[in-house]
Write a structure and sequence with these properties.
alpha+beta; globular; 58% helix; 22 helices; four-stranded antiparallel β-sheet; 531 residues
């Protein structure tokens, strides 16, 4: 079964690459269009023309690609004014609302369509089958191939298989699915061999269906829409970080408070990938990335817990992650959190075995959204206490590695307007907690603290967490969980997108408690604590 699955997925992957290339080369091919014949009884005569009301799914189909055929011949598109002047053999299209368009057709001959003198058909192409989307999907597929090849080049045994022959890539792929056969065909053998893969595929399919079912038509209320606007501001030469200078640093007007990676990606997408980039196109692109990131989190959690304790615990963990109310809420709002959480998870899993790679992915996570900044001292304490030689030097290099990507991506804005950039990033520390109604008052609200003083309870509690990490040489996953718990419970503001960050490290603490100590317990042995 596993070998069959390996072959099937490899063929699907190759087919997707070929299809993406085909879309890039010839996106106007008729095979990509949906065809429907217009019923003559719904062609309403009006001043020498015929009006047809067309209902379509505007999340799937691009109305600008509509083609009208008269007797299997494509009619030219014309402006409505020309249509009204009697332009024979032309049509006009106007989108009048969500999922609705009005098509006005002027036939080549003025005849009654009810007599079926002419037959009319409509072609429309989905957004997915465009040159821009084909390029995006091809890049993702090639990136996946690069990651797979890099994964096999890291270790000698996998590298030997990969380079063994021209078909080494195929052998390396099938080896991912191969496991030693059980001694006997028993239920326990099935549980070890096939059940984990079946469980994982079922959860991935259900999560994909759930996440896509939450996608909404209107993007203007989402934070991701304002990142689209920031990209637009860059296109027009406006610094999105300078807007905060005209404020009182208290009331938020959708200021840019994240590091520039997301803003720069929004600019690049609008400048180089999608001409006339619209908010819904940006939202569709972002949803694709967040979908892959969330599925990647599920796969990593399942694989890690399955290797440690088997499929039962791993199934619980990924079900908890995928379907708790906070993850579902972020999916519904197309939030910008899954991608940095995905990189944070990779970082925490890599840190014990490949610390520099772990630090690099933590830096990448911060560059997308800096909520993980509260884990920075925990990382540095861990690096210092696990360093056998020159711990201070290694800790300094670790700090530089962590800030490297956010710093490099911030340099253009630091040069452009240093005060505006720093003020915009620090706005989260000074914004008023009374602008939005909170589900429960934080300690600073009870004490009527405002401004920077309102952050004192949060900072004191975080300082205690870091002291615990240093004094008790505590498990890194536990320290991260405590830090995120303090952030959620003592921060002046609470938004639902904070909770998945806490849930991730909470689940990793389960791994630290139940998993094999030599692999998953990021604890430094110390006689002061019982093992």
């Amino acid at each position: 079964m596993r070998r069959t699955l390996a072959i099937a997925t490899a063929l699907l992957y190759l087919a997707a690459i070929i299809a993406s290339l085909f879309v890039i080369i010839k996106p106007q091919a008729s095979v990509f269009y949906r065809k429907m014949t217009l019923d003559p009884q719904f062609l309403y005569p009006q001043a020498g023309a015929y009006t047809y009301h067309y209902l379509f799914d505007d999340n799937t189909y691009d109305p600008s690609t509509v083609l009208i055929l008269e007797d299997d011949k494509v009619m030219p598109l014309a402006y409505l004014g020309y249509i009204q002047q009697g332009g024979a053999g032309t049509y006009s299209l106007k989108v009048t609302g969500a999922n609705h368009a009005v098509i006005v057709i002027v036939p080549t001959e003025q005849v009654d369509p009810a007599r079926q003198a002419h037959s009319y058909s409509l072609y429309i192409r989905p957004y997915l089958f465009s040159r821009a989307w084909g390029s995006v999907i091809l890049v993702l597929l090639l990136f996946g191939s690069t990651v797979f090849i890099g994964y096999n080049l890291v270790e000698a045994d996998r590298r030997k298989v990969l380079l063994s022959s021209p078909l080494g890539v195929a052998h390396a792929w099938t080896n991912l699915f191969d496991q030693p056969e059980p001694e006997a065909s028993t239920k326990r053998g099935f549980l070890r061999r096939d059940a984990p893969l079946i469980i994982l595929l079922a959860i991935l399919a259900l999560s994909t269906w759930m996440q896509t079912s939450f996608w909404q038509d209107d993007a203007t209320d989402f934070d991701i829409y304002y990142l689209y606007r920031d990209g637009q501001r860059l296109l027009t030469g406006e610094n999105p970080y300078a807007r905060v200078l005209a404020s009182d640093m208290r009331i938020n007007d959708k200021f840019t408070t994240v590091f520039p990676m997301m803003v720069e990606l929004s600019y690049a997408a609008q400048r180089f990938v999608f001409p006339k980039f619209e908010p819904m196109a940006w939202l569709s692109l972002w949803r694709l990335f967040t979908l892959f990131a969330n599925l990647g989190i599920i796969v990593l959690l399942f694989r890690t817990f399955n290797n440690a304790k088997g499929p039962i615990l791993s199934a619980f963990v990924v079900l908890f992650w995928a379907f708790n109310r906070w993850t579902l809420a972020v999916e519904g709002s197309s939030g910008a959190d899954f991608l940095p959480i995905f990189f944070l998870l990779i970082s925490l899993l890599l840190l014990p075995r490949k610390p520099w790679w772990g630090l690099a992915f933590f830096s990448l996570s911060l560059s997308f959204k800096q909520i993980g900044i509260f884990l920075l001292p925990a990382y540095l304490i861990y690096i210092f206490q696990t360093s056998q030689k020159q711990p201070l030097k290694r800790t300094l290099w670790a700090f530089l590695a962590i800030i490297s990507i956010p710093l490099v991506t911030s340099i253009p804005f630091l040069v452009w307007n240093f005060k505006g950039f720093v003020s915009s990033i620090l706005f989260s520390a000074t914004r008023s907690q009374f602008q939005f109604a909170q589900p429960a008052d934080s300690l600073d609200m009870v004490l009527k603290l405002t401004g920077l003083s309102a952050r004192i309870p949060l900072l004191l509690m975080l300082a205690l967490v870091y002291y615990i990490a240093w004094h008790y040489r505590a498990n890194l996953y536990l320290v991260c969980m405590l830090a995120m718990a303090v952030f959620v419970d003592f921060n002046s503001l609470f938004f639902f997108q904070y909770m998945p960050w806490f849930i991730l490290v909470l689940l990793l603490v389960v791994l630290a408690v139940l998993g094999p100590k030599q692999e998953h317990l990021l604890t430094i042995p110390d006689k002061r604590l019982p093992t």
